Amino acid sequence: EVYFKNLSKQKQKEVMEKNGNNHKLRVCVATCNRADYSKLAPIMFGIKAEPQFFELDVVVLGSHLIDDYGNTYRMIEQDDFDIHTRLHTIVRGEDEAAMVESVGLALVKLPDVLNRLKPDIMIVHGDRFDALALATSAALMNIRILHIEGGEVSGTIDDSIRHAITKLAHYHVCCTRSAEQHLIAMCEDHDRILLAGCPSYDKLLSAKNKDFMSIIRMWLGEDVKTRDYIVALQHPVTTDIKHSIKMFELTLDALISFNKRTLVLFPNVDAGDKEMVRVMRKKGIEHHPNFRAVKHVPFDQFIQLVAHAGCMIGNSSCGVREVGAFGTPVINLGTRQTGRETGENVLHVRDADTQDKILHALQLQFGKQYPCSKIYGDGNAVPRILKFLKSIDLKEPLQKKFCFPPVKDNISQDIDHILETQSALAVDLGGTNLRVAIVSMKGEIVKKYTQLNPKTYEDRLELILKMCVEAASEAVNVNCRILGVGISTGGRVNPREGIVLHSTKLIQEWSSVDLRTPISDVLHLPVWVDNDGNCAALAERKFGHGKGVENFVTLITGTGIGGGIIHQHELIHGSSFCAAELGHIAVSLDGPECLCGSQGCIEAYASGIALQREAKKLHDEDLLLVEGMSMKKEEAVSAAHLIQAAKLGNTKADSILRTAGTALGLGVVNILHTMNPSLVILSGVLASHYVNAVKDVINRQALSSVKSVDVVVSNLADPALLGAASLVLDYTTRRIY
């Protein structure tokens, strides 16, 4: 340890000699709001305490200088810092444009200040729009930038701003190991990254032993006890202002119902903040006996308030970061902090869309005490940061260098390669036919191959491989680049492993079959496998009526009955990959026997096999054929004959079709009452014959709240192949499947 200390001193001495023996590092610290000052103040005190090494200039801008947010520049003066420059940069307004104009105003004013100060380095904190203006100005004026808290992940536009500042900054101080790894992954130079911890933890971890009851009484009243009050701090989410204001209303309603003394802090200066203040005033929060509404609390006092609170609620980063140091329970609402590392004291209510959810969270969290968390720091950040600052060599080139990972050379740079159409090989394993197609990104079937599906496992797999190899070779001739293979098959499938677990009776010798490995080994391409009903739903999501629809159900009406469910834009597989076996919803206790062994399933009434069975019964009794119909002796009776007979006036055939349509409609009603989709898509050869019957049953049998559902017939010519292709195209181009 002594050796390394001496080595460090020697390095600092060498840096001082390089920079000039008498040259002090001129550091400009720019602070924009109360939150970033709580992180920057410990660093500023450290810099001020070492005048032999540093000269400190403080620039104050943003909401610090606005009365509506408490004129928080005063706390900087109370901390005995000389403010070199005050810049009024906030443009009043209530929408996103006001933030853009504020950035523009800061960019106009900052160059003059930086020209006068001529700092060696500027310290910028976090992810606020003001900080982006600071970093942009400094970078363009060739001033080195030290960015605090880069590499972290959260929700809203703050994420993008934080990463943009990272790319402008020359040096980085991060708080967690994950943040450090993110910075390295963003191609930042590892030698210029310091894992120091959060500077505010230097104060937090030594703060709890101080007198606190007088502070609690000052802000919340004389009769308040520790662990028996709530601190609420909620900001607008700039990417969804309307929803965040609604969530704030629900939060206040829940807090009123919870009936505990509550300190409510005003929100940050962001688009939507004025509307949130109006919501507070509309609900009478400032005059409610249980509430204290304040614009600002000094950080030293705020620490004591959250340390001894029964709970903190809202969406502030303070809740998921600093409050963990005390083990105080936190309720994090919405998506503003999505992705941040949190301790076990944080309960996330991502979809805070009802008062009851928030109230239930309060009941779960209030009054608990969790272990203290040191995810974001150990209390020694400032000494590390000062040491890091002293090690900066001002004679090093100013130009940033990025550490890009090695990239393989491109196979080809000729124009034909560049103009290739990204495509997928789609395989459809049906009960009768085996089909392989080349499908383009736009859903165009470029080329299709069809063969009879062999009866044995060995023959079937051999034919699949042969057809895929042939299609992959042909893809070169039609200028298509194959990204992968997608397979649609009947039965229960484990899509994670690419294994057919159990097949339908229509496909023999097709259980516990690994399709992914042999096909991938031969073609050297990634392979995805899924159930044919799920593939139909994916086809609708990418190419059909389901495009852009959040919740919908697809029903396949063919030889059997199947389907797929899309919920919140994602396909549902279920815990054992058995979700959406819609054909086996029972609509009768004593109906006809189904292939699954049960009775009264939709499939036993409405599938092609079921209609064929009923058609044969009529034919055997000479009740099927009517005037205008004829059949050859060797021709097999099919569902098509039943449909034709019904169209030509055969009342018995028509009755069978109506019963089948009613059974399907009852199944759809059950789906509506279970999943509540906004859209039902009927796919397959029988869809157009059933759509009106299904709508009639919904109107008669469904609850009024779901009767408005849209029921449509698929307009996709080949949903099985298109769905198999979408398995590949969605994953390889962007989506995670």
Mean pLDDT: 89
Low-pLDDT runs of 5+ residues are: 410-418
Strand content: 15-25%
Largest pleated sheet: 7 strands, parallel
Q: Under the CATH scheme, which class of the largest domain?
A: Alpha Beta
The domain tally reads 4
The number of helices is: 25
**Quaternary:** single chain
Active site: 532
Binding site for Zn(2+): 584, 594, 596, 601
Protein name: Bifunctional UDP-N-acetylglucosamine 2-epimerase/N-acetylmannosamine kinase
GO cellular component, one term: cytosol
Note down, in words, how this protein is organized.
- By secondary structure, the protein is α/β, with parallel strands linked by helices.
- The chain folds into 4 domains: 22-198, Rossmann fold, CATH 3.40.50.2000; 205-365, Glycogen Phosphorylase B (Rossmann fold, 3-Layer(aba) Sandwich); 413-543, ATPase, nucleotide binding domain (Nucleotidyltransferase, domain 5), CATH 3.30.420; 545-715, ATPase, nucleotide binding domain (Nucleotidyltransferase, domain 5).
- 40% of the residues lie in helices and 18% in strands.
- It has 25 helices and 26 strands.
- The strands form 5 sheets. The protein has a 7-stranded parallel beta sheet with strand order 3-2-1-4-5-6-7, with helices on both faces. It has a 6-stranded parallel beta sheet with strand order 10-9-8-11-12-13, with helices on one face.
- Strand 1, helix 2 and strand 2 form a beta-alpha-beta unit.
- Helix 19 (532-543) crosses helix 25 (719-733) and helix 22 (639-647) packs across helix 23.
- The longest helix is centred in the C-terminal third of the chain and has 25 residues, at 651-675.
- The protein is elongated and about 105 Å long.
- 44% of the residues are buried.
- The model is unreliable at 410-418 (pLDDT under 50).
